[in-house]
Amino acid sequence: MRQMHLVGFLQAQNCTTLASSWRHPDSRTDFLTSDYFQEIARILEAGKFDLGFFDDRLSMPDRFGSDHHHTIEHGIRCVKLDPIVTLTMMGAVTSRLGLGSTASTTYYEPFHVARCFQTLDLMSGGRAAWNIVTSLNDGEAANMGHAEMMEHDRRYDRADEFVEVVLGHWDSWEDDALIIDKASGRFGDGDKVHRLDFKGRFLHSRGPFTVPRSPQGRPVLIQAGSSGRGKRFSARWAELVFVAYHDVASGRQDYAEFKAMVAAAGRDPEAVKVATLCYPICAATRAEAEDKAALIARLPLEIDALSLLSEALNFDFASKGMDEPFTDEEMAGIQGLQAIRDRVVRNTGKKNPTVRDFMVGSGRGKPPMDMVGGPKEVADRMEEWFATRACDGFVIGACVVPGSYADFVRHVVPELQRRGLFRKDYTGPTLRDHLGLARATRGDWQPRMAAE
């Protein structure tokens, strides 16, 4: 029977993607300690989650008013720790939970990314995953020594080369390259470690790579591109795809279209898992969950939405009045998360929405409140999405940390297990085992090079 996949959506920062989460009276505030993240890891592993995954940006939100003061004052994602280091602390207290993190192809170097994630894969016994992103705003560019953000499609062109280099390095060592024979003094077989010597349009990388292969062959590749170019990139490279579908009907359509893109790229659509974002608010009963939701709904501030919109769309929302429409030129010039722009136009029915329309139509900074209830109500919603092929699983976001994860594991996971929709235990030690993917072999990605 087909089984759904569950991903814990995490941030190595002072809040979740919801800036208001730190304000909740039950949220822990010791986010600068390892124990904070290790408790989350233990909860997710107790719930048999496939992995915990860190979203990441290389700047705090300071596009609104071109200043960071409001970000600090209101705690709007202003603390951003290194997610790889944080994951190692989580990996130390778990033995099965997958460990995923974002790393930018725009500002990092492929050899560095390859070494970090392959090392994490070895240290965790084959549980690592790399979320491939192309960074999206000027704040990140400024922090990383660039005058401005690279154009959207060009970032993806560079990312294609970047992934090719990373995969090439991960293939450098054959599985049996290590000998480690003290008697003969022979450490390894030099003929089974290969130099890459990659020379592309954007990137050069020589090798040889310095980290041997891991128990799952190589880390799992994650992607979350929502533009046309991003979806083509995902169809070519990703093994786990994160999406944010907004209703079952459109989700089914987008899911089917994306799976067709995967098939067109010469890959098995069933081997590429699609997980949609949700923020379940659950409790033992529906009434109790609704009380929790009422409190959560009071926490977001207007400044949260304005700041996060400015960051995501790479446009200073302080430069316009609340009820001033965007011009055609401004709408066309948005180079951040264009899916947010398109959703606002669709939801408001306005080709030239105002700042207030963007706040309302995007829902930025607020939980969607469309999955509130007891075990049965939340499981019913998830089963509808999963059974009708609108997704292969869910990325579980939190409104309270760690309470949202604990509530979900306590109340909803047992109901999903009772229905036969979700595993009762891990079937193997590696993340590929959790996802139902075969161990990666050297060169198995090479046919994807023909995909455009």
Overview in brief:
The protein is α/β, with parallel strands linked by helices. It is built from 16 helices and 14 strands.
Describe this structure in words.
By secondary structure, this protein is α/β, with parallel strands linked by helices. The chain folds into two domains: 5-287 and 367-450, Luciferase-like domain (TIM Barrel); 302-362, no CATH class. 39% of the residues lie in helices and 13% in strands. It has 16 helices and 14 strands. It has helices spanning 34-46, 69-74, 83-91, 110-123, 138-143, 152-170, 228-237, 248-264, 286-297, 302-313, 328-333, 338-348, 355-362, 375-387, 403-418, 431-435; strands at 5-11, 51-55, 98-104, 128-133, 178-181, 186-188, 198-199, 204-205, 220-223, 240-243, 273-278, 281-282, 372-373, 393-396. The strands form four sheets. Strands 1-2-3-4-9-10-11-14 form an eight-stranded parallel beta barrel, surrounded by four helices. A two-stranded antiparallel sheet has the order 5-6. It has a two-stranded antiparallel sheet with strand order 7-8. A hairpin with a 4-residue loop joins β7 and β8. α4 packs across α6 (152-170), α6 (152-170) runs parallel beside α7 and α14 crosses α15. The longest helix has 19 residues, at 152-170. The protein is globular. The model has no long low-confidence stretch (mean pLDDT 94).
